[in-house]
Amino acid sequence: MRKASLIQFARQLQVSKASSSHCRSFSSPPSNNKLFVAGLSWSVDEKSLKEAFSSFGVVSEVRIMYDKDSGRSRGFGFVNFSREDEATSAKDAMDGKAFLGRPLKVSFALDKVHREPVTTRHSNMGTTFTRSR
Protein backbone atom coordinates (compact mmCIF):
# COMPACT_ATOMS: atom_id res chain seq x y z
CA MET A 1 0.00 0.00 0.00
CA ARG A 2 1.26 3.46 -0.83
CA LYS A 3 2.21 5.88 1.93
CA ALA A 4 -0.38 8.42 0.74
CA SER A 5 -3.11 5.79 1.02
CA LEU A 6 -2.12 4.99 4.60
CA ILE A 7 -2.19 8.66 5.56
CA GLN A 8 -5.60 9.12 3.94
CA PHE A 9 -6.90 6.00 5.72
CA ALA A 10 -5.65 7.28 9.09
CA ARG A 11 -7.33 10.65 8.54
CA GLN A 12 -10.61 8.96 7.61
CA LEU A 13 -10.46 6.88 10.77
CA GLN A 14 -9.87 9.98 12.90
CA VAL A 15 -12.78 11.81 11.31
CA SER A 16 -15.17 8.87 11.60
CA LYS A 17 -14.16 8.13 15.18
CA ALA A 18 -14.45 11.78 16.24
CA SER A 19 -17.91 12.09 14.68
CA SER A 20 -19.17 8.82 16.15
CA SER A 21 -20.86 9.32 19.52
CA HIS A 22 -20.38 5.73 20.71
CA CYS A 23 -16.60 5.59 20.07
CA ARG A 24 -13.94 7.47 21.95
CA SER A 25 -11.61 9.69 19.98
CA PHE A 26 -7.86 9.08 19.76
CA SER A 27 -7.24 11.87 22.25
CA SER A 28 -9.56 10.74 25.05
CA PRO A 29 -8.28 11.27 28.57
CA PRO A 30 -6.54 8.31 30.20
CA SER A 31 -7.91 6.43 33.16
CA ASN A 32 -6.25 8.18 36.10
CA ASN A 33 -6.09 5.23 38.49
CA LYS A 34 -4.88 2.55 36.07
CA LEU A 35 -1.26 2.27 34.97
CA PHE A 36 0.11 0.44 31.94
CA VAL A 37 3.43 -1.20 32.81
CA ALA A 38 5.66 -2.45 29.96
CA GLY A 39 9.11 -4.03 29.92
CA LEU A 40 8.29 -6.75 32.43
CA SER A 41 10.64 -9.69 32.73
CA TRP A 42 9.10 -13.09 32.02
CA SER A 43 9.80 -14.03 35.66
CA VAL A 44 7.56 -11.26 37.06
CA ASP A 45 4.31 -12.48 38.58
CA GLU A 46 1.33 -10.51 39.87
CA LYS A 47 2.44 -10.78 43.49
CA SER A 48 5.91 -9.32 42.85
CA LEU A 49 4.46 -6.54 40.66
CA LYS A 50 1.95 -5.63 43.38
CA GLU A 51 4.72 -5.55 45.99
CA ALA A 52 6.81 -3.24 43.79
CA PHE A 53 3.98 -0.73 43.41
CA SER A 54 2.30 -0.99 46.82
CA SER A 55 4.76 1.40 48.44
CA PHE A 56 3.01 4.22 46.54
CA GLY A 57 -0.49 3.46 47.81
CA VAL A 58 -3.30 0.91 47.88
CA VAL A 59 -3.09 -1.36 44.84
CA SER A 60 -6.60 -2.60 44.08
CA GLU A 61 -5.76 -4.90 41.16
CA VAL A 62 -2.76 -6.19 39.19
CA ARG A 63 -3.03 -7.99 35.85
CA ILE A 64 -0.18 -9.37 33.80
CA MET A 65 -1.07 -10.27 30.25
CA TYR A 66 -0.08 -13.78 29.15
CA ASP A 67 0.19 -15.38 25.72
CA LYS A 68 -2.72 -17.78 25.35
CA ASP A 69 -0.68 -20.33 23.36
CA SER A 70 2.58 -20.48 25.32
CA GLY A 71 1.32 -19.27 28.71
CA ARG A 72 4.35 -16.98 28.95
CA SER A 73 4.10 -13.33 29.97
CA ARG A 74 3.70 -10.90 27.08
CA GLY A 75 5.92 -8.44 28.96
CA PHE A 76 3.26 -5.97 30.06
CA GLY A 77 0.48 -5.58 32.57
CA PHE A 78 -1.77 -3.17 34.44
CA VAL A 79 -1.71 -1.85 38.00
CA ASN A 80 -4.85 -0.22 39.46
CA PHE A 81 -4.67 2.13 42.42
CA SER A 82 -7.53 3.24 44.63
CA ARG A 83 -6.63 6.94 44.23
CA GLU A 84 -5.40 9.09 41.37
CA ASP A 85 -2.60 10.74 43.34
CA GLU A 86 -1.17 7.32 44.28
CA ALA A 87 -1.14 6.25 40.63
CA THR A 88 0.56 9.51 39.63
CA SER A 89 3.26 9.05 42.29
CA ALA A 90 3.89 5.46 41.20
CA LYS A 91 4.07 6.45 37.52
CA ASP A 92 6.53 9.26 38.20
CA ALA A 93 8.75 7.11 40.43
CA MET A 94 8.71 3.81 38.52
CA ASP A 95 8.93 4.97 34.89
CA GLY A 96 12.43 4.08 33.68
CA LYS A 97 13.40 2.24 36.88
CA ALA A 98 14.92 -1.25 36.64
CA PHE A 99 12.74 -4.06 37.96
CA LEU A 100 14.21 -7.57 38.00
CA GLY A 101 16.89 -6.47 35.56
CA ARG A 102 14.69 -4.67 33.00
CA PRO A 103 13.75 -0.98 32.76
CA LEU A 104 10.02 -0.36 33.13
CA LYS A 105 7.95 1.91 30.92
CA VAL A 106 5.01 3.17 33.00
CA SER A 107 2.17 5.32 31.68
CA PHE A 108 -1.51 5.89 32.32
CA ALA A 109 -3.59 3.18 30.68
CA LEU A 110 -6.04 4.08 27.93
CA ASP A 111 -9.53 2.62 27.87
CA LYS A 112 -9.92 -0.34 25.54
CA VAL A 113 -11.63 0.50 22.26
CA HIS A 114 -14.04 -2.06 20.86
CA ARG A 115 -13.82 -1.77 17.09
CA GLU A 116 -15.73 -3.24 14.24
CA PRO A 117 -13.82 -5.50 11.82
CA VAL A 118 -12.13 -3.82 8.87
CA THR A 119 -12.78 -5.14 5.39
CA THR A 120 -10.71 -4.37 2.31
CA ARG A 121 -11.79 -3.90 -1.28
CA HIS A 122 -9.39 -4.03 -4.19
CA SER A 123 -10.02 -2.22 -7.46
CA ASN A 124 -8.00 -0.64 -10.22
CA MET A 125 -8.17 2.62 -8.21
CA GLY A 126 -6.34 1.08 -5.24
CA THR A 127 -7.27 -0.52 -1.95
CA THR A 128 -10.06 0.90 0.19
CA PHE A 129 -10.85 0.10 3.79
CA THR A 130 -14.33 0.13 5.29
CA ARG A 131 -15.79 -0.73 8.66
CA SER A 132 -18.56 -3.30 8.77
CA ARG A 133 -21.82 -1.97 10.18
From TrEMBL:
Record key words, sorted: RNA-binding
Any one GO MF annotation of this record: RNA binding
Domain RRM, residue spans: 33-111
Keyword Transmembrane set for record: no
Highest taxon above the source species: Eukaryota
Key word Transmembrane present: no
Matching Pfam families: RRM_1
Gene3D superfamilies the record matches: 3.30.70.330
Protein's name in the database: RRM domain-containing protein
Originating species: Tagetes erecta (African marigold)
Phylogenetic classification of the source organism: Eukaryota, Viridiplantae, Streptophyta, Embryophyta, Tracheophyta
